[in-house]
């Protein structure tokens, strides 16, 4: 059975492999067992019922709470020529009747319904005459009163379920809290053994928290390096949304606002513009996001602090559903915290206690020096096993080259002292850089010795330094006006008794090269941007013709792969992500034309070899790490393999590690060759690794006084593992 499922995955949906748990879930459903699926947003829940729907003889009913979600799914399925329809209040009488007729003719495989439609007598009668094999409840957390989204209609589904005693029930949710999960299980009476809980770690999301100093500037910096990307910016209030919207518009960004103060019509329109890629950015209150299934949201920014971890997680969850790297930036300030505290103080009793606990948990996440995934996952009852995710600001700052900033710190501290600790970072930076601003001159600060001694740095550098000094405890910042005060620790620096080390942290460079290496594919990093834009244009044109969202035609990943492999024939389009037989027929020629033309005009050739490899891989379903492991053991060097697979050394190391963890041996000698450490240094590292659990690289790193880089440590770590495996 699972072979047929895989067949559908490859040939209908055009995907290479199942995501974690999908295969097990589909098997369980095909064995006709009631199943509960808890998987984060973007995990791929839909396929868990869409594939069984294609395999069962009868009908699959899908209950979904929002019209926009139903519409999106049905539009996507119709693109694969899968007979799917929905019944809800948005249809005209005629459309409704037409759909009913098709249902009666048994032409339909998937029927999407709003719960209130399903509860209607006439729908129940209609379904009584259908052979319902699978009864699916999507967004099942709506069943729970503990959830953020309780819908009384959902509770009654347990009654309706009795109408089809022969059908299997599948409930799915992205609920993160254990309490709601338990509630769903209780209400639906599911057994433990048929519950599938996926990890809630969204590996492709880069998490960053930055101090909110000059939020507009920080936002513009952030957007500057993300042109043409889709993203959401969350603000606390409607007023803030409007203000920021005006500013971004003024700066030339393609942006619309969204909040409950706008008319429903306008809200829907702005949402639609966003989903259809007609605009790039939505500035919104938390009112925005429910019912959005847009897969290519590349960033989510919190202009203001979220209320608690749960809403934060839910909001960032809207980024990167397609699995591609996406950035999440949160601007944090104490005054935002006070605002939230103020609202909490209005509450009473238990409600107040709960809100306070939420705020405390959020603060843990914001203020941690550890990997951000540790407190985040902990909140959701999961232990984060690794100590270095490589995809958060804290993990990267350990990796980044630490600079000695003592000289500049002394200049800054001294300037603060000479201006009586009365000014904020911007003013201090002005004085250091010899500004002739009115305020500086009238205060007589052009006369002090620290005037004009800091021209080696741009203003923003000094501001970043001030942030760093506050963070490291050399300065404190007065809440109201941001005046900087020197702490005792700061005085030690002034006296030359202590040195300052750190990495100047910038909001726009969220992800550095090493993170990119570790977390994304070569396709993602090296696809041809020009061709990609041309393909996007075509996609938009096709989407508008049929008035469906662009991602229903092809997701971004498909276009990226096209702009990487440059396939020149229909045959060679088949291995491309998201190209199944139906879409190949529908759109193959359209896109091939563009690729062909681009290649001719720019003298680019098809990446035939890599395409062949991709094809082979799909046929044998071997994982890349297996091939790499085998070829490595057969004598190929790491360098050689990196070249052969078109990836960097670190990627090969990663695959070898996986190969090893799957219970294979690898040749230790070959690994050392990839390291550039001296033998003495290497033995020093190995000694530490004998003491500290090898997987805790961060510990090893500090144990060695940060003298060996992470990339070197990863090589030696693998060597250590390989040796001890024997
Ligand atoms: P969820 O409902 O869990 O939030 P979706 O079902 O909407 O997630 O899937 C998210 C995205 O991942 C969709 O664009 C979908 O096409 C894609 N996807 C799902 N499963 C796979 C797979 N096995 N291989 C590749 N892409 C997949
Ligand atoms: Mg879903
Ligand atoms: Zn991390």
Structure description:
The protein is an alpha/beta fold and 726 residues long. 52% of the residues lie in helices and 10% in strands. The chain has 38 helices and 17 strands. The strands form four sheets. A seven-stranded parallel sheet has the order 3-4-2-5-6-1-7, with helices on both faces. Strands 8-13-12-9-11-10 form a six-stranded parallel sheet. Helix 19 (406-418) packs across helix 20 (425-432), helix 19 (406-418) crosses helix 23 (488-494) and helix 26 (529-546) packs across helix 30. The longest helix is centred in the last third of the chain and has 22 residues, at 581-602. The chain is globular and about 90 Å long. The two termini are 39 Å apart. The structure holds adenosine-5'-diphosphate, magnesium ion and zinc ion.
